[in-house]
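User: Can you fold this complex?
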Amino acid sequence: MRILMITGDQAEDIEVLYPYYRLREEGFSVDVASIERRPIRGKVGYQINVDLSVKETDPSRYIGLVLPGGRAPERLRLDKDVLDIVRFFFSNDMPVAAICHGPQILISAGVIRGRRLTGYPGIRDDIANAGAVYVDEPVVVDGNLVTSRVPSDMPPWMREYVGLLKKSL
Amino acid sequence: MRILMITGDQAEDIEVLYPYYRLREEGFSVDVASIERRPIRGKVGYQINVDLSVKETDPSRYIGLVLPGGRAPERLRLDKDVLDIVRFFFSNDMPVAAICHGPQILISAGVIRGRRLTGYPGIRDDIANAGAVYVDEPVVVDGNLVTSRVPSDMPPWMREYVGLLKKSL
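Assistant: Here's the predicted assembly.
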């Protein structure tokens, strides 16, 4: 039972580390993928190991996807492999968790039209312009998608996502 | 249902933040106490809010205690109020979680003689010299005490500690 996390340099450290440890606590394995297979540095300063590049990632090996925030998503959303992976999870209705600036990747993947979600307040208008409904709540669950706004939302974010993962098994 | 965490400047950021969010996810409130009531800075760089000073902390308001690591415990173990709080939890057999250098505080509080625990490898001999048995495992549960060595041990550390808290209710 393996979960994929896609992130990169300048990620919000705790939005990577909290779900990383939390999902392992629940018995899942977590692979961290990035543009290149080399350690990344969070914006506060943690060095985070990367297990594989997005180019070598086979999304069908995973049961869920996590997209942390920080400044990493602005770079990741430009990468075709990242967007293809995200579309795979959505077309198979598999559990996806995104927080903070993570939904920027969802916007660029073209997967949120008609959906309800949240994210960092500063990208609220971009979420709406992509055809989705921005909801200003700590956690928003819409089908396979669990979104939150900021680090202090992480407790309900992971509570809902862990629940959704377990239901999907 | 309120948990007390005692930490300070130069704490290992993730060892503060992971249990902080994790216990809130489980429905507990978490108060962070330090020598002074002012924000502290983790050694990687997170600023962490402090709810109260140890001097104004009434341990009887809490059902459990968490002692993160980093370089903070070396300062905290010199503070009489910190040690009195720790002794309160031990004399009432209430759930205590410590990780990394957190057990330095337990050594100075004089509460680990005859106990089995773990901690950061660099303080292994100090744990043994305090009359305890050092166990080199990811998590060691001995009665009310749940200890771990390093951040990568946090999944089993919190799995055991959350279980112990729930049993204690």
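Chain A has one domain: 2-168. Chain A has a mean pLDDT of 98.
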